[in-house]
Amino acid sequence: MKALLSLVLALVTCGATWAAESGKEVERLQKAAEVINEVMGTPEKGIPKDLLDKSVCVGVIPSQKKLALGLGASYGRGCLVCRRGGNGPWGAPWMFMITGPSIGFQIGGQATDFVLVVMNAKGAQSLVKGKTKLGADASVAGGPVGRTAEGATGALMQAEILTYSRSRGAFAGLSLEGQVIKHDGTANENLYGRKIEAKDILFGGAGVPAAGRALDAALSKYSPRGGERFKK
């Protein structure tokens, strides 16, 4: 009887732990959807519509905070969604971690949301290599803001990934050069119920979990079609 009770207690404990961990991923995805809706809800201050329509993937890092480590460092957790095949409907979310030199001094050290707009297949593929340093493994630049990207420089529009920050309600292009993105294995395992690689989520046709539907819906609302076909 004692052995049975111990087993039940262990299962309950494991279940509660799993629920708590998976709850964090659900919250991350919900916040990401809120960020997209709030950013795009004001066209004159959001990501240009024509630019979003050209993108193949969009990532969100909700409320990344500055950490006081030596000269300062940044740490955050985000999620990224790609169009299926590069130009189809929005697909399953990939959970990632981002670390690097602190950029808090540029934005007042406040809790800050970041948005990444991946402009081509090369940029998307660079993110699934296990560890990607922005600016070295993938070209990155602070993106333009407004109704259209008209007037943006050629160098800016050639970047593989355009990045933005939102702090204290202000939304602006901000380069995340030097930041490192890598697979958040635990979060993805919690979300999908198994170990799964980034390429299988973004390029392998993984099903969209219920927690990811709000983010897909937000992206579909503002850019239902676009991108470029991924080459096989």
Structure description:
With about 230 residues, this protein is an alpha+beta fold. It has one domain. Helix content is about 35%, strand content about 25%. The chain contains seven helices and nine strands. The chain has helices at about 1-40, 50-55, 120-125, 155, 185-190, 200, 215-220, and strands spanning about 55-65, 75-85, 90-100, 110-120, 130-135, 140, 160-165, 170-175, 180-185. Strands 1, 2, 3, 4, 5, 6, 7, 8 and 9 form a nine-stranded mixed beta sheet that branches. Strand 2 and strand 3 (about 90-100) form a beta hairpin. The model is unreliable at about 1-20 and about 65-70 (pLDDT under 50).
Topology:
Elements: H1 2-40, H2 49-54, E1 57-67, E2 73-83, E3 90-101, E4 112-118, H3 121-126, E5 131-133, E6 140-142, H4 154-157, E7 161-167, E8 170-173, E9 180-183, H5 185-192, H6 198-202, H7 213-222
Parallel strand pairs: 6-7
Antiparallel strand pairs: 1-2, 1-4, 2-3, 3-9, 4-7, 5-9, 7-8
Helix pairs in contact: 1-5, 1-7
What keywords describe this structure?
about 230 residues; alpha+beta; nine-stranded mixed β-sheet; 9 strands; globular
Q: Strand portion, in percent?
A: 25-35%
Number of helices: 7
Count the E strands: 9
Derived structural class: alpha+beta
Number of domains: 1
Envelope shape: globular
Which residues form runs of ≥5 with pLDDT under 50?
2-21, 67-71
Q: Determine the N-to-C terminus distance.
A: 57 Å
Average predicted local confidence, pLDDT: 84
Summarize the biggest pleated sheet: 9 strands, mixed
Binned, the helix content reads: 25-40%
Rounded to an integer, what's the Rg over CA atoms?
18 Å
* Order of helix and strand elements from N to C terminus: HHEEEEHEEHEEEHHH
